[in-house]
Amino acid sequence: MVLMGVGYIILAGIMGIKWGLLSRITGNVWVGLGDHLFNNTVATNMLHVVSQNGADELQIVRIMAAQIISFAFVMVVYYCGKRNANR
User: Fold this and answer.
1) Cα–Cα distance between 62 and 68 in angstroms, integer?
2) Residue 47 — pLDDT band, cuts 50, 70, 90?
3) Is residue 48 scored above 70 in pLDDT?
4) Which one of 43, 62, 65, 77 has the largest count of C-beta atoms within 10 Å of its C-beta?
5) Number of structural domains the chain divides into
């Protein structure tokens, strides 16, 4: 329970920063909403791993991995756009 709580706090921070960057890049909040929908659909709802206990015990790890990959992609796009704007 503690691991899940800490994981979700870190996850909320990553998602908040990512959605803020998406809003800054595009100028609207709908892109962040679309990102949230896409990540929930792919990382959370389409892929379930059932352990021997019958539960998805590593769901937070899977969600965190998807969010970190998505965050890295948004950071690359943000910094490339910022660098091109300075030229």
Assistant:
1) 10
2) low
3) no
4) 43
5) 1
